[in-house]
Every structure is written in C-alpha cells, then in structure tokens.
Amino acid sequence: MDLDAWRLIMSGATIAVGGIFPALAIGMITAKAVEAIGRNPESASDVRTSMILGVAFAEAIAIYGLVTALIIKFV
Amino acid sequence: MALHISLAAETIGHIGPLPITNSLLMTWGVMLILLFMSLLSTRKLSLIPNHFQSVIEIILEGLYSFFSSVVGHHVKMIFPLVASLFLFIIISNWSGLLPGVGTIGYTEPVVAEQIEFEEKARVDEKIAEDTHEAILSVDEVNVTQSESASSHATKFVPLLRGPTADLNMTIALAIIAVIAMQYFGFKTLGVKYSHRFINIKNPILGFVGFLEIISDLSKVISFAFRLFGNIFAGEVLLAVMAFLMPFIAPMPFLMLELFVGFIQALVFSTLTSVFINVALAHEE
Q1: Facing residue for B229 by CB, picked from A49, A63, A75
Q2: Does ipTM exceed 0.85?
Q3: B266: nearest CB among A45, A52, A66
C-alpha cells in the first residue's frame, strides 16, 4: 500500500483507539458526579465544578489523540 | 467541490514583513467587540443601572462569584486576568460559528513553495529509483509540471477564521496563563515561591521541584491543544455535517458547538485559576 492509504488508516485508527478511554473516563466521572448530586443535592454546584474539571482533563487525552490524527493526516 | 479543511490559518495579506492571517483578522474583530462593549457599558455608570449595564453586571457578578468559589480570597487579584481570558475565549469561540466565517473567501492559485515541496518529494522518489541521468530529465519535467500546475491548481482561502481555531492564538493564551501563574506566585510569596521549583534541602523535594518545572512546561501544551483541538474539531465537524446534509442536520451540532465554546472558555479560565491557586498554596 502507498503512504496516503496508510495515513488514512492510521489517522482513523489513532482517533478510534484514542477515543475509547477518554469516553470511558468521562462516563465514569459523570456517573459518579450524578450519583453524588443525587445523594446530596445541596452540593450540586461544587460537584459540578469538579466534574467539569475532571471531564476536561479526561477529554484532553482524546484531544491529544485528535491532534495526533490530524498531524498524521495533514502533515 | 471537495471538502476544504486547513490545519493552519491562511495568510491573506501582509503589513510590512508581518503576515496577516484570516484568524488574526477575526481576532481584531473580537477585540473590537470587547472594547466596544466595555466602553459602552462603562460610559454612563450609574447606581441604578440601565438595561445594558445590568446585563454586563449579571455576567461579571456571575463570573466573580464562580471564581471566588474556586480560589477564595485571592479572587480580587486574579479576577481581571481570568475574566478577560474567559470573555475573550468565549467571544472567539462563538465568532467562529457566525455565518460567513470560514465560508466567505476567494480562490487563489496554490502558492509556488507548496508545489515545489510536492515536486521535490516526487523528485526524491525518482532519485531513489533512477540514475543520475534521469535526474536531469526530471528537473526539466519539474519546471514544466510546476508551470502547468500553478496555472490551474487553486485553493479556497476563507477571509475569516475563528481565532481559537488557530494554534498560534491558543499557544499565546496558554503562555500568558502559565507566566501569570509564576507572576502571581512571586508576587504573593516573594522569593519563597522559587522553593517550589528549586529545593536543595533534601533530594526528594529537589526531584519534586524538577517535576514541577516539567509539569508547568507541559501545561502550555495541554492548555493550547485542548482549546485548539476542541474548537478546530468543532469546525471540522460542522463542515463535514454541512457537506453531508446542508439543511437541517447541522443545527443540533451548532447548538453543541455553542455549548462546547462556552465549556472550553470556562475550562480554560477555571484551570488557570485552579493552577494559580495551587501555586499560591505554598503560602504559610
């Protein structure tokens, strides 16, 4: 196969594999946060802030995968 | 018509030696909007606010109480920085969603260096397989090919591009944020703040200091790529959706991008304030 075909395959594979674990992480973080808010609704705003921070950190991994995929594809 | 996605911002003109990219043009627009709004809202300050002033007050009060819940009593010191970051980033993110941004533009012939680059790659391949004699002939072919290619190869250059969909802008913002952390650390703790990085009292703390230096440097990358990746991915998503089905399908994704733009602005400024708070935590 030529280089362009490999690039297409690998950029797709990069974001596919790189998206699995952040997706899991975001699901777990949000599940726990919703659980916490359900148990203690008064703390909703504090929990929400920490949840957004945690989700942002987990999402950063997916973004690194995306950037790598874009670099493989375009550069 | 092919789908057009460009990772880098396109140059649309020059002022002296300074290349003006389309995202820089949009950045000036965002700066004008912010300047105009701040001037308009502070021109006639009154104790009983008019409609516009009260809207701005609601936004700023919300931000102030949010940041004070994150950093506590340091909020007075860092509020101008993080609130400016938030407002600038959110206007930048949303400005990329305006109709016409990224779609209005002009076509120009593909610049010569790109063709040369491609040709060079081709020539390199041929060098690998052909003899020296062949290279000379390739050089001749090369000239004719680049002439013919530049005559018909064109690319679309949008006139405007979301400022935060350009890696230069997000790296600049990230560097500002990381330098501000060090600035506030030294401002509050004085020379004692440097003990966070350089500590010769015992080897473990010395190694932790080394890790702190690495982690602060990597914060630049992480900040920059998080913002850039989210906004750029959003633009690609919208472009692909509009390409697949132009009419109803992009609507939910536009809503999603509005939400992502808000969340990313919030995340950027919140992380900045959290890290500043961490930097100030050595306070005794």
Answers
A1: A63
A2: no
A3: A52
Burial label for B149, CB within 10 Å (0-12, 13-18, 19+), is middle
Sequence ranges of the domains in chain A: 3-74
Task: Say if A8 is an interface residue toward chain B (CB within 8 Å).
Answer: no
pTM score: 0.79
Distance separating alpha carbons of residues A15 and A64, to the nearest angstrom: 9
Query: In angstroms, rounded to a whole number, what is the distance separating the alpha carbons of residues B124 and B120?
Result: 6
Closest CB to B226 among A49, A63, A74: A63
CB contact under 8 A, A56 and B222: no
CB contact under 8 A, A64 and B229: yes
* Torsion angle defined by CA atoms of residues B72, B73, B79 and B81, in that order, rounded to the nearest 10 degrees: -90
* Residue B15 host element (H or E): strand B11-15
**What residues of chain A lie within 8 A of the CB of B226, using their CB?**
56, 59-60, 63
B218-256 pLDDT, tens digit each: 889 889 988 998 898 888 888 888 888 888 888 888 998
The domain A3-74: what is its CATH number? 1.20.20.10
The backbone torsions φ and ψ at residue A11, rounded to the nearest 5 degrees and listed phi first, read: -70, -40
